[in-house]
User: What shape does this take?
Amino acid sequence: MKTDFQSTLQALGKQAKKEAEEKAAEEAAAKKQEAENADFASMVGTVTPLKQTSQYYSAPRDKSPIKPRPKEVSSLDEEDYFYIGSGGWDEPPASFSKNGQGKNDLQRLRNGHYPVVADVDLHGYTQEEAQQVLNEFIVFVQKRGVCAEIVHGSGLGSAGYKPVLKNMTRRWLMQHPDVLAYIEPREGNDGAVRILIKRRHSEEQ
Assistant: This one.
């Protein structure tokens, strides 16, 4: 029994010594870690946290000047414009047709047989400016159809109450090679005409 007791005491003593050594080792490791942490803090110094922001990155604005778009090239060269001279104070007729289609063309214009694809108002233009507009207008209409309307006014506001722009427009239409006919589209209103022009061939468009 004595031998067994001694053996037990020895075993207990060894266990206690081992536990004491392990505890001492843990304490030493903890002190070493604290020392390392202190050294790191002293090396870094005071740290200021970054401020949070909700702004997104935006590229700098382009302040270079805007380049103007090139002006639209006229569909006609100036030498191709059709002009008539001044004069001819006799008032042109309310309707006109040529090329032997007289009654048929006029009747179809009155009945709305041809869809009106465009219109233009010549108020405010000089006679020369109006003729330039009319040249461009004929080309514009031919790309879209054969019928259009031109507002030239009755001329009541002209000097001497002479319908200068009205007479010039109708004489211009009577002489233009591509104009087949015109009529006054609304009864009692002589301030406008509806025109019928030659259809352009596809290869000319």
Strands lie at 96-97, 116-121, 147-151, 179-183, 192-197. The mean pLDDT is 75. The domain at 92-197 is CATH 3.30.1370.110 (Ribosomal Protein S8; Chain: A, domain 1). The longest strand covers residues 116-121.
